[in-house]
């Protein structure tokens, strides 16, 4: 556990662009979620767009690492759809 902060710091340093894209997408999602707070359709589109971005980001990130396998793709798809489902319940879309 004592190596975890060093691992995160190295990961952020080596793959700064990848994480910048993900964080920027997350910030735009939060802004869109706040902007479209009363509009169910627009909120659902924003959540879906972020989930698609997350899935594509995960595949791109693993492709750059050279370890893109079907298990990575399935993992990101399952996490993305779980996030979509949970936000649909939470936001009552």
Number-wise, the strands total: 0
Radius of gyration: 15 Å
Please count the helical segments: 4
Structural class: mainly alpha
Q: Could you characterize what this model shows?
A:
The chain is mainly α and 93 residues long. It has one domain (4-91). The protein has 4 helices and no strands. The protein has helices at residues 4-14, 16-35, 40-65, 70-91. The chain is globular.
Please render the helix and strand layout as text:
Blueprint lengths: L3 H11 L1 H20 L4 H26 L4 H22 L2
Helix pairs in contact: 2-3, 3-4
Keywords for this entry:
4 helices; single chain; 93 residues; mainly alpha; 0% strand; 85% helix
TL;DR of this structure?
The protein is 85% helix and 0% strand. The chain is an all-alpha fold.
